[in-house]
Specification:
The chain is mostly beta strands. The chain contains 2 helices and 14 strands, in the order E-H-E-E-E-E-E-E-E-E-E-E-E-E-H-E. The strands form 5 sheets. A 4-stranded mixed β-sheet has the order 6-7-5-8, with no helix packed on it. Strand 9 (about 90-95) and strand 10 form a beta hairpin. The longest helix is centred in the C-terminal third of the chain and has 9 residues, at about 145-155. The protein starts with 6 loop residues before the first strand and ends in an 8-residue tail after the last strand.
Amino acid sequence: AAGPLPVVATSLPDAVGSVLAQPLVASTALPPFDAAGMDGWAVAGPGPWEVVGDLLAGSTLDRLPDGRAVTVATGAALPGADAVLRRERGLILDDVGGGRLYVGDAASGQTAPHPGYVEPGSDVRPRGQEAAAGEHLLEAGGVVTPAVVGMAAAAGYDHLSVVRPPDVALL
C-alpha cells in the first residue's frame, strides 16, 4: 500500500544509515594533484639536493627548482617535484656551505653507489590515480556507511541524495 519514498539531500554525517538515491560520481580527480606516497623528501633534478624547507599535507608549492628538495609528509601535494626519496633512503651530510641530501642508508651513514639519483616518479601518487573526474564510484541503492561518507567527502561532496527513511508508528 506504500509508494516509493522521496529523495532528499542530506549532510554527509546525517546520511549514515540511509540508502544512496543517486550514483556517487567523482567531481574531481582523486587525488586532485600529484601527491607524496611516503614520508621523506620531494626532489627535483639530479642530486645531491639542497633541502630548502618542509611541505606538509595541505601545503602547496609552485615549483621546486632542480637540485633542491623539501621534506614531505605522505599526502603532500608535489607540483614540480620529480620523485620522493623515502626517509629511510635519504642521508643528509655536511658539505661546504651546509647540508646536502644524498641517496643512502640513514642507519649506517653510507651513501648509495649513485647518491644523486632517484628513479623519476618514485613514491609519487599521480593525479587521478584512484579515480578520474566523472568516474562512477558507487551505484545507487547501497547503504551509506561511514566509509561511503569518507569517499563522498574525498570526491567533493558536502551532501548526498538519499531515500528518505520511512516513518514508522506502532499501534
